[in-house]
Amino acid sequence: MEHNNRIGLLLMVMGLVLGCLQGAQAQSQSPERLVVAFNFTIPPSWFDPAETPAQIVPFSILYALHDAVVRPLPGERMAPALAASWTESPDGRTYEFKLRQGLRFHNGAPCTAEDVEYSFTRYKGAGAKELQAKVQRVEVVDPLTIRFHLREPWPDFMTFYGTTATAAGIVVPKKYLEQVGEDGFQKAPVGLGPYKFVSYTPGGELVLEAYDGYWRKVPNIKRLIMKGVPEGTTRLAMLKTGEADIAFAMEGQMAEEVQRDSNFTLVYTLHASGFWLEFPEQWDPKSVWADKRVRLAVNYALDRQAINEAACLGFCPPAGVIVPRVMEYALPAEPIPYNLQKAKQLLAEAGYPNGFDAGELTPIPPFFMVGEAVLNSLQAIGIRARLRTMERAAFLTAWREKKLRGLFVALVGAAGNAATRVTTFVCSQGAFASGGYPDIDTLCQQQAVERNRTQREALLHRIQQLTIERVMYAPIMDFRTLVGLGPRIAEHALDTIPFHAWPAWEDVRLKGQSAEIPSQPPRPAGPAPSPSPRRDAADEAGVADVRLKGKSAEVPSQSPLPVSPAPSPSPRRDAADEASGADTSGDQDTLVVLAGAVTPQRLQRKVSGYRNLPHVIGFSVQSTPQKTLQELAAAGGYFNRLLSVTTVGELQRAGQAAGVNIKIISAPGRRFHSIVITPRRLPDPAAQALSSVFRQMPNPLARQQQAQRH
């Protein structure tokens, strides 16, 4: 009898546990809520934009809770948001913004120009010194109009104010913040974003609710739950059990496990992000790192491609400079080749034939896998270091306060251009610069006021070249975040905002939900500078082809990395998909450039419109992983690795060299990742003519293929 009672009790307990687990899973899978597992702890300081660091991570929270006067939006690197329009004076000294009518904060208070002025004045985060030095005064003209008066023309004002280079353009409610104070604001933030604050559990989760007064659209999902989960295996488990719908930063084996499981989808982001190794003690003459030969030895010791394969499954292209290649004014630079013999030779010449003890190596959290890979590379040449781990917030504070010693692995994903990167990390007065050089500082000052784009590009290229010649850093790779998606996701909205790491949260959609078309922000009403990179005459001609008659331009969206080589077409068809389905029977001599992240699934969906054409030829891109190349080949596509990141104008000139016309389906910027398809197989001479244009570009894949041919 007692035995039966024990069994009954055990069964009852098991039933309760299973019931709780099923209840939790059912709750997490509610069509009214989305659960996101981030790879970092969410600090309450990110609820207030006032002290935002030069990192992209806080914007995962900021753009959910808040909105900015001008900011990146789907399809636009910089677009009017809270502003209906903006203008720049002919002399480049005055910027005027007209706010939208009827804007209200989450607490119902109206948003006025006074809130904009207050938010800018209290901003103390990344770029604050530059903004304060160059903005003479802010004028509230009327409740909906505000003017910024600069001391002198500054080409990067809008880059600093209207992108994620800083958070200075995010608007907070003046009266509410003055009433509750900064501590009270972090406990109960009020903003203008698509979601409003519900609750926060320190070290745990942030719960947000859709704001039906958001100017762009009402979010598709009612409740957004953001969880900080630094441990990668836990994020993977949450994804697999259905506790999380989206899991960020799936590294190495975890990413492979997501990719292998047909119930889940692995995608990657394409944003301005890059890893590098920092030598903060190189300006100390007593430090071993003051010897350039030692820093150069480290650069030769880094097996960048192996680190890419281990941490990113091959999606993160090795880098030759700390400015990501997708940024405007980035210097095309080859990575220093992996050469252990050369590295050991340099160490011996510097007086360290047996290596030395380098102290601590601190990777930016939570990318400890990259840190361990760098540590292994150092150990291969006798440099011994200990891996130090920190919380992300503590790491960023120590970096800003210049307290990190030894070596540390940096990762930065904030938007902007090469100027914003060098201003923050290279110029000696930069908020996160470990040191600097007088001649580089002079170049920094010159480029900041240079309005001629060609001359400015030359100055910024010279700065970047000097960082290479002086071995100020050891660039590792441009970063692509691998993201795991659960089976409920219908639209993840990643990379709909060009070169941005996070989704447009209001556009994320679950299966079974209908898509709502958002309001499109109007264009600036005057000669406001575009954040888009420079285009020459041929580029402009190419951009004219982006929009097909009666259709809107394609927003470069991220496509899933398929599990099988021939996936079925996605049921989702945006405006650009429909455009690609137009009758192209007359385009027998036309190449089509398909920009963005290209996989066989997306290729199949896009090319399905060319139903009257018998053949498709594909040219792969630098960031396409080997697996996707193999799948393209298995599906019958033809690819040539020599085509890489390029411009519209260069593509057109390549087409002219091959005797074919080039039509652009999508071109989000001057430099973009693309695949070229044609309705018929090109003869080898034409393919070679197209490829010749790109052989001179910094492309490791091209280098590998050329080496194989020789």
Question: How would you describe what is shown here?
Answer:
- With about 700 residues, the chain is of the alpha+beta class.
- The chain has three domains: about 40-230 and about 485-510, Periplasmic binding protein-like II (D-Maltodextrin-Binding Protein, domain 2); about 275-480, Dipeptide-binding Protein, domain 3 (Roll); about 535-710, no CATH class.
- The protein is about 35% helix and about 15% strand.
- It is built from 23 helices and 24 strands.
- The strands form six sheets. Strands 8-9-10-1-11-18-12 form a seven-stranded mixed β-sheet, with helices on one face. It has a five-stranded mixed β-sheet with strand order 15-14-16-13-17.
- Helix 9 (about 290-300) packs antiparallel against helix 11 (about 340-350), helix 17 crosses helix 21 and helix 21 packs antiparallel against helix 22 (about 685-690).
- The termini are far apart.
- Mean pLDDT is about 75; it is low at about 1-20, about 520-650 and about 665-710.
Task: Compile the SSE list and pairings.
Blueprint: H1 2-28, E1 33-38, H2 59-65, E2 70-73, E3 76-80, E4 83-88, E5 94-99, H3 113-122, H4 128-134, E6 135-142, E7 145-150, H5 157-162, H6 174-187, E8 195-200, E9 205-210, E10 223-228, H7 232-241, E11 246-247, H8 252-260, E12 265-268, E13 274-278, H9 292-301, H10 304-312, H11 340-349, E14 356-363, H12 368-379, E15 383-387, H13 392-400, E16 407-412, H14 418-425, H15 438-449, H16 453-469, E17 473-478, E18 482-485, E19 489-491, E20 509-510, H17 537-544, H18 575-580, E21 590-595, H19 600-607, E22 617-619, H20 626-634, H21 648-658, E23 661-664, E24 674-678, H22 684-692, H23 700-709
Parallel strand pairs: 1-10, 1-11, 14-15, 14-16, 21-23
Antiparallel strand pairs: 2-3, 4-5, 5-7, 6-7, 8-9, 9-10, 11-18, 12-18, 13-16, 13-17, 19-20, 21-24, 22-24
